[in-house]
Amino acid sequence: MKLLNVLRTSVLSLMTIGAISCTSQKAQETEKTWSEKAIENARKQIGLEIDTIEASGKILNPVTLKKDGSVFYCGYEDWRSGFFPGNIWYLYELTNDSTLLPIAKKYTEALDEAKTLTWHHDIGFIINCSYGNGLRLSKNKAYKDIIVEAAKSLCTRFREKAGIIQSWNVDRGWQSQRGWECPVIIDNMMNLELLFEATKLSGDSTYYKVAVAHADRTLKEHFREDGSCYHVIDYSLKDGSVRNRHTAQGYAHESAWSRGQAWAIYGYSVCYRETGDKKYLEQSLKTFNFMKNHKRLPADLIPYWDMDAPKIPNEPRDASSASTIASALYEISTYDIPEAASYKKYADKIMESLASSSYTAKLGENGRFILMHSVGSIPHNNEIDVPLNYADYYYLEALKRKMDIEKK
What we know:
By secondary structure, this protein is mainly α. It is 52% helix and 8% strand. It contains 13 helices and 9 strands. It has one domain: Alpha/alpha barrel (Glycosyltransferase), CATH 1.50.10.10. The protein has helices spanning 2-30, 34-56, 83-95, 100-109, 123-138, 141-155, 192-202, 206-221, 258-275, 278-292, 319-332, 340-354, 389-407, and strands spanning 62-65, 71-73, 158-159, 164-165, 182-185, 232-235, 242-246, 374-377, 382-386. Helix 3 packs parallel to helix 13 (389-407), helix 4 (100-109) packs antiparallel against helix 5 (123-138) and helix 9 packs parallel to helix 11. The strands form 4 sheets. A 3-stranded antiparallel sheet has the order 5-6-7, with no helix packed on it.
C-alpha cells in the first residue's frame, strides 16, 4: 500500500511538473513580441522563396507578381535587382543564420556587371542594397572596389549646368514621349548613399561633392511650401533652369505621390547623417509631418498610393511607402533631436500594421514575398496591389534598425 501511495505521489509530481513545463512553454510563446514574430515569419517566407529559386538551378531575382499570378524575375540592369540579395543580407543579420551567408554572397555577386551601368541612375539602389550590405557584413574587400566603380558610373550622369544627376535618358521608352530634356526624380535621393560611401572607401571627395550638389538643387526645386514633393523635375541641359514640374507615377503633377514622399523622407535623413547639415533633416521632417498630418492618412498609417487619388478611401494602399518611411524614422529616432523617441514610436505603429495579417502574407502565398498591397505605377497600369521586393527590403531594414535600437 505504501508503495502504491509513493507511486501515486510520483505520478502526480510528474504530471504537475509536466503541466508547469507546458504552461511555461506557452508563456514563452505568448511573450514573443510582434517584431520577433515578424522576423521569424520573414525567415520562413523568404526561406521558401530561396528554396524555390535554388531548386530551379538558375540565378533568379524575384521582384513582384505578374498579372497571371506568377513571379516576375528581373535581370541585373533592373533598378530593383539589388533588393533580393539585400533581403538575404538583412535576414542573415536579423537571425544569425549562417546558412544564409553563402546565398547572400551568391545573389549579390550575380550583379557584378551592374557596376558599369551608366544609362540610368538606379545603380545606387542596385549596388548599395546588395554589395553595400555585403561589405558591411562580410568585410569582403573586393566589394569595396565594386562600390567605388559603381559610384564612378553614377557620376557620369552628373549634369554641371543643373548641378544634378540625371535620372532617365529620354531617347527610349515612355520617357521619350514626355517632352523632357533632363528629368530628375525624387527617387534619385536614394542613390546618393552610394556616393557618400564611395568617398569614405576611396578618400576621393568627388563623390561626396556630387551627392551634396544633387541634394541641394533637389532641395531647392522639388518641394512645395507644405513640405510635399514633386516626382519629376525636368531641367534644361543648356542653362540648368527648370522646364517642367511633373509626375510620372503619381495621380497628377500637383498631387502627393506617397512613395515619392517616402523617398524624400529617407533620402534627406541619409544626407543629414552623412553631412551633419541640419537643412537636410529639416526637410526630411517637414515631408514626414506633411504625411503624418495628412487628413486622408488611414488610421493604420499605411498610405494610399497617392494622397490625392480621387477615389479615396477606395484606392490601393502602398506598403512600400510605409516600410520606407518606418525605416527612415527608426534612424531619425537615434539623432540628437527634440522628441527623438516619438519617431520610433510612430515607426513602431507603422510596422505593427505591416506585421499584421492585413499586410503580411500567409506562408507560401503571395509569391513568397513578405508584404502584400504595394503599388508600382497606376498611371502605367503596372504592379497594382501586389507584393514588391523593395517593400520587403525596407521592412526588413526597419526591423533591423528597431532591433539595434532596442539592444542599446
